[in-house]
Amino acid sequence: MPPFGLHTICATFRQLGIESYFCVPSLAADAEVRDMTWKAKALGIPWDEPYRDFPGELAGFECRERRYNFLRNQTDTSMIADEYVAEEFSKEHLRVSLSNHYLAEISDLDGVFWGQQYTYPLEIKEKTCAHDPRLGEYFGLDLGPFVKLAYYAAKRGNLHSLFIVREIADPQSRELVAWRYITFDRLAQFASWIQQSGGQGMSGGSSAVVRIPKSEFSVLDREALSRL
């Protein structure tokens, strides 16, 4: 069963026009993985919905006429620990199941924080601090996640966005320096809008990066969470 808190968060989403579903895989005991299907129930509504076939009929999406070539992207999965393979496979299978039926751009949400006043969708990244002669120390955010945060911020109401950085000393040791965060309002206010190419994206090409001065981030600790 979906956690009660999830219903509360999804009710906030629904008030802003964002529908939410709780999805579970369905697989017979003697079946193979290729036969796996999905069931889902709507969340954030004041009544209990039964589980239905997913994706089923979803309003606002255009049906796909051609086969979805989900193998066109080459992603290195060797760093996924064994204990997380089942979870990552389930998320990818669900993504492909939706994309087989509908034309849709799919993006993940790293988490949701239920604050004192607002609900915060989270984008969480592990990063080293970069330096620019004109900007000083900064953290980069790919354009895709930036647009995602902007989408939630544009809904306004009770919904805000946070960009959280796990700052590390270097990519080799991944030694933690500090957890830092910035609200989307401050991110949009202080980000450098001069486009700069970043590293390789999920699709294999280079990504555009928005640069945010490190000085505009706050340290993320228990006290900071209590103020949000």
Walk me through this protein's architecture.
The model is unreliable at 199-205 (pLDDT under 50). The chain has helices at 4-15, 85-101, 143-155, 184-190, 222-227; strands at 20-26, 37-43, 52-54, 62-63, 102-103, 111-114, 119-127, 130-132, 136-142, 162-168, 176-183, 192-200, 206-213, 218-219. Helix content is 24%, strand content 34%. The chain has a five-stranded mixed beta sheet. The protein contains five helices and 14 strands.
Quick overview:
This protein folds into two domains: 100 residues, no CATH class; 117 residues, Trna Endonuclease, Chain: A, domain 1.
Q: What secondary-structure arrangement, pairings included, does this model have?
A:
Blueprint: H1 4-15, E1 20-26, E2 37-43, E3 52-54, E4 62-63, H2 85-101, E5 102-103, E6 111-114, E7 119-127, E8 130-132, E9 136-142, H3 143-155, E10 162-168, E11 176-183, H4 184-190, E12 192-200, E13 206-213, E14 218-219, H5 222-227
Parallel strand pairs: 7-10
Antiparallel strand pairs: 1-2, 2-3, 4-5, 6-7, 8-9, 9-13, 10-11, 11-14, 12-13
Strand order of the largest sheet: 6-7-10-11-14
Helical/strand content category: alpha+beta
What is the number of beta strands?
Answer: 14
Quote the distance from N terminus to C terminus: 28 Å
Overall geometric form: globular
- Following the backbone from N to C, one meets helices and strands in this order, namely HEEEEHEEEEEHEEHEEEH
Largest sheet, strands/sense/barrel: 5 strands, mixed
Give the rounded overall mean pLDDT.
86
CATH architecture assignment of the largest domain:
3-Layer(aba) Sandwich
Number of domains: 2
As a percent range, the share of helical residues equals 10-25%
CATH class of the largest domain: Alpha Beta
Weakly predicted, low-confidence segments: 199-205
- The fold-level CATH name of the largest domain is Trna Endonuclease, Chain: A, domain 1
Number of helices: 5
Rg, rounded, reads 20 Å
Percentage of residues in strands? 25-35%
